[in-house]
Structures are given as structure tokens and as C-alpha cells.
Design goal:
Elements: H1 4-9, H2 11-14, H3 20-28, E1 31-35, H4 41-51, E2 55-59, H5 84-95, E3 100-104, H6 110-117, E4 122-125, H7 130-143, E5 147-153, E6 156-162, H8 172-175, H9 186-189, H10 193-212, E7 221-226, E8 231-236
Parallel strand pairs: 1-2, 1-4, 2-3, 4-5
Antiparallel strand pairs: 5-6, 6-7, 7-8
């Protein structure tokens, strides 16, 4: 249960009728696995922490570099050279002392991910490479864990929700087959700081909706965001019967 000071902390948010105190308590009872503490993971994790998440498992094996600091708000100049998950854990505890944070510093693959995801209620994918993104999709489908996934490059991004607790749910591979997806990286193509903030915030918002049951999550949909041209579009996704992961949402 929340302490009196916690209720005071989240008062403005609890005043939202769709959330209320019951929804706030659901957030406190939820464990989020945020994979990636970079451009997307920084705003996503910070907003989940500020909103009142009970626990965040923050996973990233990379180290903080100077060129990260313009968009990866979890980190500071003083923590350059530190592991990103450990640096991020410091920032998250500073923003919310009621939060439990567990940094995970090992690399993510099918083998290491499964026991990690098994301890989470919701997985928030904030990676910057296709191989890891597809591994997360496979494990979440296997464990029936709801997955929020996003990407950002240059001035465009995308965000989707796959709630594998429900039947007939397509997976990430249905929409973006692994053998067809190009591995586009911000390190070579660039990305706008404002875009990573927007996409990370959208991921946090979708994860909060999944945790609390309020609103309408982007289940089985993809939202495309083009900040350069002020273009926001939502498309429905359908299960692919030939998908090697979910075999058409099964």
C-alpha cells in the first residue's frame, strides 16, 4: 500500500479520473523491464519512475559516452564511462525514492533474456538494434508478456504494443520480419533529441495504460511519428500465418 507521502506525491496524477488511487496502486504493484538505457530508455524509464512504478529492471550492457549525453537523460558528465544500467539506476532513484531499481549489466540474448523477462509484468523495449528487438519479441511471446516496442531514427519513429496475454495477437515479427528488416542505427544515420523524448514518452504512456487498464493502448497497431513534417499515423497490424514466431497469433 502507498504511504501518505506517496499519495501526496502522485496527487495530480491520481486526480485523473481514469486512473485514481486504484490505478496508482496498480502502478506500484507492477514490475517493468526496460531494455536499453539510451535515447529511448532514458525518457521511458524516467517517466515510469516519476509516474510511480513499483520496480524497474533496467537492462543495458553498454557504457556511457560523451556523445550520449545530448539525448540520454539518465546520464551525466560525471558518469561517463559507467555502465548505463548502473548510471540509470542512480538517476531513477533520485527522481523517486519509493522506486525499486535493479540494474542488469549483461548482454541481452534469448538465453539471458528469458529468466529476466519472467520476473517482469511488462517489457518495454528501447533497443537500437534489430537482432535484440527480435529476440525480445520471441521471448515475450513465449512467456506471454505484454511488450511495448519502439524505434527512432533521424526524424521518424514508431511505437507498438503486443499484448501476448491475449489470443490472436500478432507479434513484432509479423509486422517487421527479421529476414527483411534493415538494422538502421542512430550512430550512423543520426536522430533528433526531441524525437527520442517523444517516442520514449509514448512507450511509457503505453506501458502505464497496460499496467493500469486505463485508456486504449496501441494493441496490434503501429503509430508512425514524423516530427519533421508533423505527421502522426496509426495502422492496424494483423497476425501473419507464416510468421515463424507466433504462427499467426497463436
Amino acid at each position: 500500500m502507498m504511504e501518505a507521502k506517496e499519495k501526496e506525491r502522485y496527487l495530480r496524477q491520481m486526480n485523473v479520473a481514469e486512473l485514481g488511487e486504484k490505478g496508482q496502486q496498480k502502478l506500484k504493484d507492477t514490475t517493468f523491464l526496460v531494455i536499453g538505457a539510451g535515447g529511448l530508455g532514458s525518457p521511458a524509464a524516467l517517466l515510469l519512475a516519476a509516474a510511480g512504478a513499483g520496480k524497474i529492471i533496467l537492462a543495458d550492457f553498454d557504457t556511457v559516452e560523451v556523445n550520449n549525453l545530448s539525448r540520454q537523460f539518465l546520464h551525466t558528465d560525471a558518469r561517463v564511462g559507467m555502465n548505463k544500467a548502473e548510471s540509470g539506476a542512480i538517476a531513477l532513484k533520485e527522481i523517486n525514492p519509493y522506486l525499486t531499481v535493479e540494474p542488469y549489466t549483461e548482454s541481452i540474448n534469448d538465453e539471458t533474456l528469458e529468466p529476466l523477462a519472467a520476473r517482469a509484468d511488462i517489457v518495454v523495449e528501447c533497443c537500437d538494434n534489430s537482432k535484440t528487438r527480435h529476440a525480445i519479441n520471441r521471448v515475450c511471446h513465449k512467456l506471454r508478456k505484454p511488450l511495448v516496442t519502439s524505434g527512432a531514427i533521424r526524424g521518424a519513429g514508431q511505437v507498438s504494443v503486443f499484448d501476448f496475454r491475449e489470443s490472436d495477437t500478432p507479434c513484432y515479427d509479423c509486422a517487421f520480419p527479421e529476414d527483411e528488416e534493415k538494422d538502421l542505427k542512430a550512430s550512423t544515420l543520426g536522430v533528433l533529441t526531441s524525437l527520442t523524448g517523444i517516442m520514449g514518452a509514448l512507450e511509457a504512456s503505453e506501458a502505464i495504460k497496460l499496467a493500469t487498464g486505463m485508456g486504449k493502448p496501441l494493441k496490434n497497431q503501429v503509430m508512425l511519428v514524423d516530427v519533421l513534417n508533423n505527421d502522426f499515423q496509426i495502422f492496424n497490424l494483423k497476425p501473419n500465418p507464416e510468421c515463424p514466431v507466433c504462427h499467426g497469433g497463436k
